[in-house]
Structures are given as structure tokens and as C-alpha cells.
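=== RUN LOG ===
request id: a7f3
mode: sequence -> structure
chains: 1
length: 181
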Amino acid sequence: MFDPSKTAILIEQSKQGDKRANEQLAEYVYPTLLSWAHGRIPRTLDSLIDTSDVVQETLVKGMNKLNDFQSLRPGSFLAYLRRIFINTINEKLRSEKATQSLEEAQMQQSKLILKDDIDELVIYEEALLKLTQSEQDIIILRVEFGMSFNEIAGALEKNSEDAARMQFNRALAKLLKYIRL
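=== RESULT ===
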């Protein structure tokens, strides 16, 4: 089970120059990020790069910019790494002169529970950006990282699993409204 409070502690220690905490942080988030990343490499790059290599590159970039990272809430580090991963894939697509964007390629392979409701992942990403940061976090943790409501409650410091479920349902309804516009 992923523990965002452990992540927050390791981030703080890393920012204070603790090299061991930096290593522990990378080792701790790696499996969760790798699990999420599987199936998200576009087919145009799939034979050229390995998912684990991109995850490692993502972690290196994230760890190098750790001092710039500002955690607004305990679960935001995974969302931060998710964005770095997507940007890294987009860089690789541009360098390979691939014609598909990450969103188009992901739409073919995505395991998102919203897949049937969304014509293209681009629409999902644009709608997601219209949500507040806390709404984005809860959608990303549930939909993309597959966390349980209990895990989300801990990650986002909610009072209960039901509170997390209620916030997710509200955020999801708002997201779907933006998608349908």
C-alpha cells in the first residue's frame, strides 16, 4: 500500500540534503510509477524504448527538480511524476518525429475506467486541467493509479473512505460535464 505521508517525509529529508532519503524516495515510488506506466508507451515508440527506462528517466528528472517541487498535499508527488512521465514521452515522440501524440496513442491502449465516455484522451486531459488541483489529484489517484478510496483518504488527508468517495464522485461528475461541453 502506497503511503503518501512516508513520501512527504522522504521528500522533506531529501530537500534537506539527505542522500539516503533521496534514494529511499526513488525506490519507494518506483514500483507504483512503473505499474501505472505499463501500457502507456505509444506503439510508435514501444519497440524503441522500455517502460522501465522511461520510468527511471522520469524519476531522475523528478529527483533532480525535487527542490522546485512544492507539495500542496500528501498525494501530489505521484501527479507530479505522472506529468514528468507524459512530458518525457512527448519529448521522445518529437525526437522520433512520430505523428501520434501521447494522448492519441494512449487512447488506444488506455485502461482508464472512463475510456468508453471519452472520444480521445486529449479531451480528458483538457477537462482534467479545468478542475481544481484537489479534484485533479483525486481523479488521478483513483482512475490512473487505481488507489482504493481508503488509500485516497490517507493520501489526501480525508476524514474517511466515504469522504474520499464523495469527493471523487463530485470531481468525476464535474470532469464528465467538461468532457461533454
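=== NOTES ===
The CA atoms of residues 66 and 128 lie 24 Å apart.
Confidence is low (pLDDT under 50) at residues 98-102, 109-119.
=== END ===
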